[in-house]
Amino acid sequence: xxxxxxxxxxxxxxxxxxxxxxxxxxxxxxxxxxxxxxxxxxxxxxxxxxxxxxxxxxxxxxxxxxxxxxxxxxxxxxxxxxxxxxxxxxxxxxxxxxxxxxxxxxxxxxxxxxxxxxxxxxxxxxxxxxxxxxxxxxxxxxxxxxxxxxxxxxxxxxxxxxxxxxxxxxxxxxxxxxxxxxxxxxxxxxxxxxxxxxxxxxxxxxxxxxxxxxxxxxxxxxxxxxxxxxxxxxxxxxxxxxxxxxxxxxxxxxxxxxxxxxxxxxxxxxxxxxxxxxxxxxxxxxxxxxxxxxxxxxxxxxxxxxxxxxxxxxxxxxxxxxxxxxxxxxxxxxxxxxxxxxxxxxxxxxxxxxxxxxxxxxxxxxxxxxxxxxxxxxxxxxxxxxxxxxxxxxxxxxxxxxxxxxxxxxxxxxxxxxxxxxxxxxxxxxxxxxxxxxxxxxxxxxxxxxxx
Length: 452
Prior knowledge:
Layout: H1 22-32, H2 48-78, H3 82-89, E1 98-101, E2 105-109, E3 114-131, E4 139-153, E5 156-163, E6 170-180, E7 183-190, H4 196-199, E8 225-234, E9 237-245, E10 257-270, E11 273-285, E12 294-298, E13 306-311, E14 319-331, E15 334-345, E16 352-365, E17 367-372, E18 377-383, E19 388-400, E20 407-418, E21 423-434, E22 439-451
Antiparallel strand pairs: 1-2, 2-3, 3-4, 3-22, 4-5, 5-6, 6-7, 7-8, 8-9, 9-10, 10-11, 11-14, 12-13, 14-15, 15-16, 16-19, 17-18, 19-20, 20-21, 21-22
């Protein structure tokens, strides 16, 4: 660190030399003499030191004149815009790493095809029950608190998604994937290719909970499975197939397996008009260690009472064949979606047949809905600058087709406010009933959602 210079010279400090050094004198003369006429010869002979300085000054002026001449020649040869000509011949600099923060954090090098991103979601819910559902505990909970890391390197993509809202950290999407035959090959834990609402992200569905055609009903406990999948997108549709074990990271290893396939077609995707049609099928067969298959229906909302629609065998006796039909669309501010599914479970003394479906209609104000043609899934609406609103009406139904009096019905009225692309507030009033017990109750549900 340099010492601070004192304004008063100490008596002990050496006094500066009266005559400057030779180099400083030459530089000073070079600056002040070009515009001055040469001095007249002195009347008395000048000292030898001064004569030597004059000689060195002459050499410096000669060198300066030579450099000026060379520079003028170079400018004349370059033309009227030399800077532009030189810049056009210079090689382009390779793009470097770009870091972008908010929401989430992303770092990537597009030229190298590498990237890394950290993101997640927070869904904070509050519940209050009434009617025959009043015995259920209300209060609040973190419905979802997920952190995920994904990125690309070496022609492969990856994702690791952790769910931290339960009593233990749980894995959701955990896979690697790469391009293959015009589509995407996925290896790891993911959602099998079945059901529009199952594949639509929880960030994007219009109500608090999914319907009974998903892992919240027909495929209870099997929303994510481990295996291999392939998805190919087309100009007006998609095709996805998957083969998996009947295992998620929180369930034991077992020898069960599942196959699923889904095709979608969107003949109309233009402006505020959309028509989506989808068909899917699923086959599951149990093996050693396979958990029992079952169907439960939360007819008064999450954390409320459940209707037991089916309880099946475990192990190699477990099995399910299911098909589903889906349709969705929009015209202007009005949008709708609906699914119907039918599943045949292996059971004794005879197979059980379960049917499930829903119908949902919505009205958007100052928001534009999204849709991914190549995946055949819906995306959450994009709000206007001041935020957007959505009004939802929905009916869900599940029942045993082979046994009378076993089923559940649920009705939902919802109001959503899209404050920004990341923030959404949701209010649901849910009323439902259980056919087997004649129970009838309702739930008020509120969610604060942030996606980053």
